[in-house]
């Protein structure tokens, strides 16, 4: 092969390599955008919550809400859930406040916020007053949503009101029979797990 031909081929190869490098570099940059990262974190965060890995979930959702993208109410709601099940009630309350400031009609978060108030306010009479005020803000059409009913069952179970807890648990299972599977391992139902009515509902 003539030297000139070799030079031409090398130039072509270099140009092709440069095009590939620039294209790949652009793709890599796009893959690392805050929006892309937020999407990855949301998928990962939901999986962690589903598996009950709440400490890891906190780290995931914390990173998500710190990204320079538009944070959603659901981002903060998931963060609140992770704080709640990790025993960090004050942080859970703040996360739910952030969620509700973005979407005031997010009824499940409203119930969860009421539950967190019952945990962080020492004066129980005042705590119930505040919690009931939050529950009163839930629209009538949302009161039969499975997530709302389930959260209400958790709220009353954690605060020593088994009759109300079992009533709401019964309602949510009627609306969504799959809820009984989640209820079997739900931490919030530890105080009522021994009751025969609870056992009948979830079995």
Account of the protein in words:
With 203 residues, the chain is an all-alpha fold. The chain has helices at residues 3-31, 34-50, 54-66, 73-85, 89-102, 107-120, 124-136, 146-158, 162-175, 179-183, 196-202. The protein starts with a helix and ends with a helix. Residues 1-14 have low confidence and may be disordered.
Short description:
By secondary structure, the protein is an all-alpha fold. The protein has helices at 3-31, 34-50, 54-66, 73-85, 89-102, 107-120, 124-136, 146-158, 162-175, 179-183, 196-202.
Summarize this structure as a short list of keywords or feature phrases:
single chain; mainly alpha; globular
Looking at the structure, what is the overall shape? globular
Main sheet, how many strands, which sense, barrel?
A: none
**Poorly predicted sequence stretches spanning 5 or more consecutive residues:** 1-14
Report helical residue fraction: over 70%
Q: What is the beta-strand fraction?
A: under 5%
Distance between the termini: 81 Å
Number of strands: 0
Alpha plus pi helix count: 11
Rg over CA atoms, rounded to whole Å, is 25 Å
Helix-strand layout with pairing:
Blueprint: H1 3-31, H2 34-50, H3 54-66, H4 73-85, H5 89-102, H6 107-120, H7 124-136, H8 146-158, H9 162-175, H10 179-183, H11 196-202
Helix pairs in contact: 2-3, 2-4, 3-4, 4-5, 5-6, 6-7, 6-8, 8-9, 9-11
